[in-house]
Amino acid sequence: YGIKNLNYMSYNHQHHYFFLIGPPLLIPVYFHIQIMHTMFSRKDWVDLVWFMTYYMRYFLCFVPFYGFFGSVVLSSFVRFLESHWFVWVTQMNHIPMDIDHDKHQDWVTMQLKTTCNIEQSIFNDWFSGHLNFQIEHHLFPTMPRHNYWLAAPAVRALCEKHGIPYEVKTLWRGMVDVVSSLKKSGDLWLDAYLHK
């Protein structure tokens, strides 16, 4: 099976091509198709009308300035940037963490072992929309994001008191970990399907 599919999609090189293929297809393609499917399957006609009026309003605003083709290019480019931002912000806090199987731990410990924070700075807070405090986001999902930094010292103190690791990475380390994780999983795929 693996040898047959190697020519189709070489997963062991996914760390090279993922960011050219994955993010651009995530929000502009997959999310829009999924949203449309959900609205039709649930017969949520009010949401469908609001969804359609967004595009009507968008084109009414931008076609006079950029033309139809220019407006489509602008929308696609903005969605392309949004997709890359979304993938980086969400993945660097989750992907490389130890989440292989349930270790029968309490909920708080499990949240802390399956996510990490990206160190706080003005840029990181802005770039991630305060989701650089992913630990606090997992522990307090309904808390407004701009308050996570206030909860972080209390969570860190609780972790120190109970000997639970509280992992904080640099932005660069988080990005490198995503690429490393893609390479590692690609190498596992190659080993599983070609060599065994």
UniProtKB/TrEMBL annotation:
What species was this sequence derived from? Tenualosa ilisha
Q: Which GO terms describe its biological process?
A: fatty acid biosynthetic process
Q: Which residues form the signal peptide?
A: none
State the name under which the record lists this protein: Fatty acyl desaturase
The keyword Oxidoreductase is annotated on this UniProt entry: yes
Fatty acid desaturase domain sequence ranges: 12-167
Q: Name the membrane topology term.
A: Multi-pass membrane protein
Where it sits in the cell: the answer is:
Membrane
- GO CC field: membrane
> Per the database entry, which stretches of residues form a coiled coil?
none
Output the superkingdom of the source species.
Answer: Eukaryota
